[in-house]
Write a structure and sequence with these properties.
By secondary structure, this protein is an alpha+beta fold. α3 packs across α4.
Amino acid sequence: MRVYLPCTLPALATAVKLGELGPAPLTGYAVTPALTEWYASGDTEELEYVALTEAARASLRMLAADRADGVQAPPRRVVVAAEVPEGAARAGADLEERARVRLAQAVPLTKVAAVHIDDLEAAADVEAALAALPAADEGDDDARFTVDGAEAHELMWYATQEIPDLLRS
């Protein structure tokens, strides 16, 4: 099963050092029965894109949390796509996030299929989204528009052998 795990560049660097994404439990996003039912007309590729987008939103929140903790994370959303055994991901009951799953085990880097990351050109919009996130959470429509502006940027796809280059950039 393909699972999309929200991440940041500092967290990815830590995962490379440890050889796994963790510690467990991990929150990820995948094509769940609830997502399939909700998005009935979509094919597998479209459903995976929805899960990837949800993971990118979660990555933005991880960036905000890093910054609040004093971690200087570059303003780039990161999503790690990994293959986990069927049954390893448990879908939640929260219908607001139909694609959200929980993993009870850390994910070895050997199970990573690819990394999706914002292009450098998205940095200004991601930075603006980070600044607007608190107001967006309070219901400010202009702030929500700014946060949504980060989603206008498609995440770039990178093979696993390119991870060291991503961490150097």
